[in-house]
Amino acid sequence: MTRDARAPAAALVALLTACSASSVVPPATAPASPSASATASLAACPPALQLSALHVLARVAGDPDDVTVDADGVLWLSDRDGKRILQLSPQGALLHTFADPNGPEGIVLLADGTVIVAQQVTDRLDVLHPGTGAFSTWLRLGATSSPTQGVDGIALDGGSVLVPDSAHGRLLSVAVGPGDVAGAAAVLATNLGRPVAALHAPASGYLVALENQPGLALVDAGAAGETAVIHVGSLDDLVVSRGLVYATDLADQSVIAVDPASGETRTLVSGAPAPQGLTLLPDGRLLLVDSTAQEVAPLPVC
C-alpha cells in the first residue's frame, strides 16, 4: 500500500519475535478444508471475529506487509520499512532473513521456485536468489513521483505475472520468460487510478483492488474503463477462492468476503488496525498479515 496513507507502523526492531520460543503460539488444529470444486456462498461465512480473537501463527516485529505461501506451507513475508524479506516455517518459526533495501512488497513464487519481488522504492520487479541473497532485475516499470508510489501487490496468473502498475494506473500481464528475464508485457487496462492488487476474476476479466474509488473493480482485457464491484475506501490485497473474493480493507480495518456477481459482502475480521497481506494456505484457510498489530494469523473461509 502507499505508506503515506496509513497509520504509522510500529517501531522497527531487528529480529522477528517469532524466532523465540515464547513468541510462536502452537497452531490450532486446522478445520477440514472445503472441496476445491465447490462454489462457496456468503451464507456459509463464519461469524465475524475481532483480530484479537484469531490464533496468532507468528508475531513479526517491524512492518510486515505482503505474504505468499508455497505448496509445503512455507511463508514468504515482505517487510518494506524493515528492508527485508522473511521466510517462515508453516509453524511460524523464522527460517531465513534476506536484506532488501528497495521497499519489498508483493511476492510471487513461480512453478520452478523462482522468487519474484515487487520493489516499491525502485518501482521494478526483481528476482531474489535465495542461495546468495542477491537480487537481479526482472522488470522495470518506470519513474515514480515518490518512493511510496511504486508497485505494490503482484500475482501469478498461469504462465504470467499480473502487475498492477500502481504509479502509472495500469494493469499489466507479463509473460514468464526463459531464465530470470521477463517476457513480453501486455497492457490489460489503463486509467485505473492507483491499482495495488489484481487477480483473474472467477467468471471472466480481472478483479483490481484500488486505493481510489470504486475500490474493487472488474476490468476486461483491452476494454475501456472498469465496472465497480463494490465501493470501499482503500483495499490492499485480494484472494479468490471457490467463486468468492476476499479482501483486506484498510479503511474499515477489516477482512471482507465479496460475491463478485451480486456485490454483496460479509465481514470476516474486524478491529484489525492495518490489515495488509492476504493469501490462501494449502489447507484452504486464509492467512492475514496485520502490519500494526505485527501479527500473522489464519482464518476460515466461507
Explained architecture:
With 302 residues, this protein is mainly β. The protein has one domain: 6 Propeller (Neuraminidase), CATH 2.120.10. Helices cover 0% and strands 45% of the residues. The strands form six sheets. The chain has a five-stranded mixed β-sheet, with no helix packed on it. Strands 2-25-24-23 form a four-stranded antiparallel β-sheet, with no helix packed on it. A four-stranded antiparallel β-sheet has the order 3-4-5-6, with no helix packed on it. It is globular and about 45 Å long.
In a few lines, what is going on in this structure?
With 302 residues, the protein is mainly beta. The protein has no helices and 25 strands. It has a five-stranded mixed sheet with strand order 1-22-21-20-19, with no helix packed on it.
What order do the strands of the largest sheet run in, or round the barrel if closed?
A: 1-22-21-20-19
Strand count, sense and closure of the main sheet?
Answer: 5 strands, mixed
Q: How many angstroms does the end-to-end distance come to? A: 26 Å
Number of helices: 0
CATH superfamily: TolB, C-terminal domain
- Total DSSP E strands: 25
In CATH terms, what is the fold-level topology?
A: Neuraminidase
What fraction of residues sit in β-strands?
Answer: 35-45%
The ordered H/E elements are EEEEEEEEEEEEEEEEEEEEEEEEE
- Which structural class is indicated by helix and strand composition? mainly beta
**Average pLDDT over all residues:** 88
State the shape: globular
* Low confidence ranges: 3-36
The helix fraction, in percent, is under 10%
